[in-house]
Design goal:
alpha/beta; Rossmann fold; 6-stranded parallel β-sheet; binds nicotinamide-adenine-dinucleotide
């Protein structure tokens, strides 16, 4: 592990963050909030996104984000599309752009598309007139820093020197502000050279404004890059593991919540990330595992690639298995039936829909010729139509709109529905917050509820009259009660 305290280092006064998305926005807003002496400018090419960051209606929903932004914006936190000025005045630049899975060409469907990282790196090289510390904040394949260094060295102006650091972000959407204010750890990777160690110390000093130095760990660049992929792969692996067990529970009468609780009490296992569900979503888990699979294949490690690929395959299986259970419960046909889909975000407390299980469920229901009435408290209508058209390119929006209705509230969604499907664990969907007696009265009978998130009180709903099917719990029909 590299020492970060013995070499002289530059005190950071100005930071630029390229990419005002789910990571760049909250991360740098918290840095500004906790470091009033540092000027932080977050830039993006997307004018609408920057305008939203400068308005009262921020472009992303995160609990606590509004307060953090409002406390610092205009003081030492700025949002701008003027990439050139922000790069030029900064001592340290975070590259926090998107790294989606490649949609075409070599590695299609697995490898990360590094086009945005390359383009941001080229902008830094071309525009910087003084030396900079450049920080990979985006999640990237192992050894991307080497490519970035080559681009910077080949294109930088004479006398301008770049030090490259890796500082992956471990925040989770929905709890981003809490995670950033109180991180389990901050990871900084650098080259093990005097200048690399000095750059790492500069960044350690920024985080040390609010994070205990013991929690700021420094490693070599490649360990840092790989650790981010591995952390997400391990988290997703736990979800796929418990989801695989949920299938056994449904067939045997074991209860997945009880199994997870009993196993999680073992301190070697721990209780977190053992909640069965309809499957994980979000922009990162699938993308990062596929990235790890691609890396393993590139390194001629096919057994390793197959092992990790199974985590993603299990996730797909869980979504289709849940759909099959819904179809079979509804007397083997969804044709002409109305399904109230509760939740479209990939998890609660975010408006993000990337890789949301709800998108797959909605498309499965459409293929079965059902009408889907969906409701989500935070996702914008335009985003829902975009997601549904992108994932069903054979259908135009008009065709989709004949089968999908966006409801104003859960009661409107449930009106004349044959089933409610809970796909996102929003607190408002809990039986303590919604009037399920009213929902029952509005629905066709028998009225079904499929709990894909294990958030409902099954006996209470059955008492009302619902037929309740829960992931990881047997149907009453199979007689294991
Ligand atoms: N979303 C998460 O929960 C999360 C968590 C940890 C890590 N990450 C990683 O962080 C990175 C960013 O993710 P995100 O969710 O914030 O993505 P995002 O799509 O929300 O934001 C990326 C932003 O970068 C901007 N951008 C792209 N190229 C640019 C350029 N050359 N100049 C200026 N702006 C540019 C885009 O316009 C966009 O607004 C990804 O690598 C992701 O894997 C994401």
């Amino acid at each position: 592990m590299a020492s970060t305290t013995e070499v002289p280092y530059k005190k950071i006064e100005k930071i630029c963050c390229i990419g005002a998305g789910y990571v760049g926005g909250p991360t740098c807003a918290v840095i500004a909030y906790k470091s009033p002496h540092i000027k932080v400018t977050i830039v993006d090419l997307n004018q609408a996104r920057i305008d939203a960051w400068n308005s009262d209606d921020l472009p992303i929903y995160e609990p606590g984000l509004d307060e953090i932004v409002k406390a610092s914006r205009g003081r030492n936190l700025f949002f701008s599309t003027d990439v050139e000025s922000a790069i030029n005045e900064a001592d340290l630049i975070f590259v926090s752009v998107n790294t989606p899975t490649k949609k075409s060409g070599m590695g299609k469907g697995f490898a990360a598309d590094l086009g945005y990282v390359e383009s941001a790196t080229r902008s830094i090289a071309n525009l910087a007139t003084s030396s900079k510390i450049v920080v990979e904040k985006s999640t990237v394949p192992c050894r991307t820093a080497q490519s970035m260094r080559r681009i910077l060295d080949a294109n930088g102006k004479p006398g301008v020197k770049f030090d490259l650091l890796s500082n992956p972000e471990f925040l989770a959407e929905g709890t981003a502000i809490k995670d950033l204010l109180n991180p389990d750890r901050v990871l900084i990777g650098s080259l093990d050279t005097p200048s690399g160690r000095s750059a790492a110390s500069s960044l350690v000093d920024v985080y040390a404004n609010w994070v205990n130095r013991k929690q700021i760990i420094t490693t070599n660049l490649w360990s840092s890059e790989l650790s981010k992929l591995v952390a997400n792969a391990l988290l997703a692996q736990r979800i796929s593991s418990i989801n695989a067990i949920s299938a056994i529970c449904e067939a045997t009468g074991a209860d997945v919540d009880e199994v997870a609780y009993a196993c999680g009490l073992d301190t070697r296992i721990g209780p977190k990330f053992l909640k069965a569900s309809v499957g994980f979503g979000g922009s990162c888990f699938q993308k990062d595992i596929l990235n790890l699979v691609y890396l393993s294949e590139s390194l001629h490690l096919p057994e390793v690639a197959t092992y990790w690929k199974q985590v993603v395959d299990m996730n797909e299986y869980q979504k289709s298995r849940f759909t099959k259970r819904i179809i079979s419960s509804l007397f083997n046909t969804l044709s002409g039936k109305r399904i109230a889909l509760f939740g479209f975000a990939f998890k609660k407390d975010t408006g993000d829909t990337r890789e949301s299980a709800s998108i797959s469920l909605c498309q499965y229901f459409r293929q079965e010729r059902a009408t889907v009435a969906l409701y989500d408290p935070k996702v914008e209508e335009t985003q829902i139509w975009l997601d549904l058209t992108e994932t069903a390119p054979q259908d135009n929006l008009e065709t989709i709109k004949k089968q999908v209705i966006i409801a104003a509230d859960p009661y409107e969604a449930a009106k004349n529905a044959d089933a409610i499907v809970v796909a996102t664990e929003w607190d408002m969907f809990k039986d303590t917050n919604l009037d399920y007696e009213k929902l029952y009265s509005l629905m066709n009978k028998p009225a079904f509820i499929f709990d894909g998130r294990l958030i409902l009180d099954r006996p209470k709903l059955e008492k009302i009259g619902f037929k309740v099917e829960v992931i990881g719990k047997a149907s009453h029909d199979i007689g294991y009660e």
